[in-house]
Amino acid sequence: MKPIVLSGIRPTGQLHLGNYLGALQKFVKMQQEGIYENFFFIADLHALTTNPDPKALHENVKNVLAEYIAAGLDPEKSTLFIQSDVHEIPELYLLLNMHVGIGELMRTAAFKDKARKQLGITSPATDDDEDMAREIIGGNSNKRVNAGLLTYPTLMAVDILIQKADFVPVGKDQEQHLELTRRFARRFNSFYNVDFFKEPQNFNFGGEPVKVPGLDGSGKMGKSEGNCLYLIDEDKPLRKKVMRAVTDAGPTEPNQPMAEPVKNLFAILKLVATPDKVQFFTDAYNRCEIRYGDLKKELAEDILAITAPIRERYKEIRNDEAYLRRVVEMGAEKARAHARKTVEDVRQIMGILPF
Ligand code: ADP
Ligand code: TRP
User: Fold this and answer.
1) Is residue 200 part of a domain?
2) Is ligand 2 within 6 A of the CB of residue 161?
3) What is the predicted pLDDT for the residue at 350?
4) Which residues in the chain show pLDDT less than 50?
5) ∠ at Cα 93 (87, 94), nearest 5°?
6) Long-range pairs for 192-195 at CB < 8 Å and ≥24 separation?
7) How many angstroms separate the CA atoms of 153 and 105, rounded?
8) Which residue of 82, 224, 247, 301 has the fewest CB atoms within a 10 Å radius of its CB?
């Protein structure tokens, strides 16, 4: 039996360089290893937690599927599926929720961020989150945080546990959700005195989880940050975005520490360029001879060397809807076979038995 790998991305827009270097590139590498049984899916039920426009959601499911394939995922080698095609997932989500505490869900970092946004709270999070709890529970507020957002980690745990995954390649920001998944698995096993669910691990090929920064000098590249280099960006607009990246006036003393925006440029360069190019620009910086324009030109070309071929394949694949449909039909069947078995067993374990 091969170890099982599973991961997913929410269809909330086109994929950007952060999604690719943090997640999708790892999926492709794991597929290439040939030693795993791979499941990669599109988390459309998770996307519903932020109430997207229905038409945009459906388009984005197709876009991300085409981007998966364009980046190198092969439907013959990996099971590619849409989360909502596996009806056993909502069933297990209901069953598992019986063992999940609202308190632990409310303490999840991703929930706190999104709930504060939905409630329009702008002050920084506090330890007890009293302001947030008051808004959520207090009857005077007409604002609402939907229950789907609260139970997001249960749904994610179900995606993973239903396929009995061993490895879940994700970026650093998803590690807390993985930790909860392990906790839910342990709790279920111990409550029913069974050795049923496996505890999944992140996977980084021995390195640190990747975090791709934004080019605007800010923290991370992300859809909601509006600072993305998209995989499907054409050459010219992508070059323009890179050339506009924030820098500083340049070093004035040898070996001067780098300002945050400059550090970010180097961080991306390290992920896309050869080590000798990184060395070249680092030396130039340390000697105060760096020309940021040259660095940006190099960076844009190295990014395009990765993204342009994906973009061109994407255009062809995205236009072939009949092919995309065949891929998801095939994927749904395989994903459901595993899921059905798990849910049948869980029903038995929990005492939902046939007459
Ligand atoms: P976004 O933050 O743009 O909405 P998602 O939350 O849908 O992206 O993330 C999908 C996958 O991409 C996750 O595995 C996440 O860890 C990874 N990811 C997203 N942004 C980055 C980034 N800037 N650096 C590294 N990985 C990222
Ligand atoms: N929460 C993940 C994200 O925002 C997406 C996701 C949903 C996922 N279910 C999953 C990732 C299961 C890995 C495994 O990126």
Assistant:
1) yes
2) no
3) 98
4) none
5) 100
6) 192/349, 192/350, 194/349
7) 7
8) 224
pLDDT of residue 133: 82
**CA distance linking residue 37 with residue 3, whole number of Å:** 6
In a domain, 281, yes or no: yes
Q: What is the model's pLDDT at position 210? A: 85
Closest ligand (CA of 168): 2
Q: Is the CB of 18 under 6 A from ligand 1?
A: yes
Q: Is the CB of 7 under 6 A from ligand 2?
A: yes
Could you say which ligand is closest to the alpha carbon of residue 214? 1
The per-residue pLDDT for 198 is 96
Q: Active site includes 296? A: no
Q: Which amino acid is at 57?
A: L
- Do 194 and 266 share a domain, yes or no? no
In a domain, 78, yes or no: yes
Q: Which domain holds residue 182?
A: 4-100+151-210+321-350
241 is an active site residue:
no
Q: Is residue 222 part of a domain?
A: no
Are 309 and 338 in a shared domain? no
Q: What is the CATH number of the domain that holds 245?
A: 1.10.240.10
Q: For residues 194 and 261, state if they share a domain.
A: no
Which atom belonging to ligand 2 lies closest to the Cα atom of 46? 7
- Please state whether the predicted TM-score (pTM) of the whole model is above 0.70: yes
Beta strand ranges found along the chain (DSSP E): 4-9, 37-42, 78-82
- The tokens for 274 are 């050869």
If one counts the domains in the chain, the total is: 2
Terminal Cα-to-Cα distance of the chain (whole angstroms):
34
Check whether residue 52 and residue 167 sit in a common domain: yes
Q: Of 46, 5, 98, whose CA–CA distance to 346 is shortest?
A: 98
184 and 285 together in one domain: no
The residue annotated as part of the active site, out of 112, 220, 277, 297, is 220
Q: Is the CB of 157 under 6 A from ligand 2?
A: no
| pLDDT value for 159 | 98
Is residue 178 within 8 Å of 186, Cβ to Cβ? no
- Rounded CA separation 98/345 (Å): 16
Model pLDDT, residue 254: 96
Task: Give yes or no: 143 in active site.
Answer: no
